[in-house]
Design goal:
Layout (H helix, E strand, L loop, with lengths): L5 H15 L6 H8 L3 H15 L3 E4 L4 E4 L13 H13 L8 H15 L8 H5 L14 H13 L1 E7 L7 E13 L2 E8 L4 E6 L3 E10 L8 H5 L12 E7 L1 H9 L7 E4 L5 E7 L2 H9 L5 E5 L1 H21 L1
Antiparallel strand pairs: 1-2, 3-4, 3-7, 4-5, 5-6, 8-10, 8-11, 9-10
Length: about 325
């Protein structure tokens, strides 16, 4: 049986993590964190005591639940071979992003999971990693302290003070209400509400130089969905008016373009000439322009006119620079 009740399993892990980090754990704090009632939390605690024999007591001095036996650990987890392989693959994939502490954290998690399993079920992490090769990718390096600061603010829903450096500008401190982490095109971003104007913006995590923890709390709107927020663009920069753009590809790469699912809302047409036309949503001319130019001479933008003008201008500049280089 492999994780039959995943939401309950996630709560078990989060509860255990909070207890071991000696955070204040009460029915009220858990009810607020999990958006449920205190009676549900009471039943959860009793379930932990009965089903897992967890030595949970209420520490009156700290006014918090605590483990009376710090050496107690959760029993082994019922995972199947497919679960183990998926964890191993995920661990290897995250090595793409060595600029963050994620890869090392995931390795430690897998090692702990392995120790919790009966001996006959244990699998060496290296035996799974040998079955997948990841080609190195360009990436921006994220400082471990910054990663931890952002992750903590997201997890605890507390305002984050960040020293952020925009491209070609001096760094400055700003307050952020981080909603979620975003992984796109090999970079880590954080989607965060800017209290100054109330807009949800996208920030490069690697451009955060320093963070400061605060106790000010915020609430993520119930109607906020990362999939909806970023769903109307091929990129990650949103906030302006979205639009759709059309690109025509030459016969030389039309088949290759057709193999790729660029966006859930794309429209692809294969023409009698052997060419292909692709229509995609975008949230900024910058990202649409960068997409078209990445194909060089094999792509020609058809609409909207503003994008055609920008790409044509860039093409003229490139042609001019090559003429000067002769």
């Amino acid at each position: 049986m492999a994780f039959k009740d995943r939401p309950f399993f996630r709560r078990i892990l989060e509860f255990d993590d909070l207890m071991r980090r000696k955070r204040v754990v009460t029915c009220s704090t858990l009810a607020a964190r999990w958006e449920t009632s205190t009676k549900t939390i009471q039943r959860f605690v009793e379930q932990m005591r009965e089903e897992f024999e967890a030595p949970i007591e209420f520490d009156r001095r700290r006014r918090s639940y605590a483990y009376s036996d710090p050496d107690w650990h959760l029993p082994f987890l019922p995972v199947e071979g497919s679960d183990l392989f998926a964890i191993g693959i995920a661990m290897k994939v995250f090595q793409l992003y060595e600029g963050t502490p994620v890869a090392e954290d995931l390795k430690e998690v897998f090692d702990r999971l392995s120790e919790l399993m009966p001996p006959e079920m244990r699998v060496r992490p290296s035996s799974l990693l040998e079955q997948l090769y990841i080609h190195p990718q360009p990436l921006r390096v994220v400082a471990p302290a910054v990663w931890e600061g952002v992750a903590t603010a997201i997890r605890e829903k507390t305002v984050l003070e960040a020293r952020y450096q925009k491209l070609n500008q001096p760094p400055s401190w700003r307050s952020l209400e981080p909603y979620c982490l975003v992984l796109a095109a090999g970079d880590w971003f954080v989607a965060a509400r800017d209290p100054e104007d109330g807009m949800v913006k996208t920030f490069y995590v690697a451009r955060i130089q320093e963070t400061r923890h605060t106790t000010a709390r915020f609430v993520v709107p119930k109607d906020f969905s990362p999939a909806r927020h970023f769903g109307e663009t091929i990129g990650i920069f949103v906030g302006g008016e979205t639009f759709r753009f059309r690109v025509r590809f030459t016969r030389e790469i039309a088949a290759w373009v057709g193999e790729v699912r660029w966006h859930p809302k794309q429209k692809l047409s294969l023409l009698p000439t052997g060419e292909a036309e692709l229509e995609l949503p975008a949230g900024s001319l910058f990202e649409a322009r960068r997409f078209v130019l990445s194909f060089g001479k094999d792509a020609r933008v058809l609409s909207p006119p503003a994008l055609v003008e920008e790409v044509a201008r860039d093409a003229r500049k490139m042609a001019s620079s090559y003429r000067e280089a002769r």
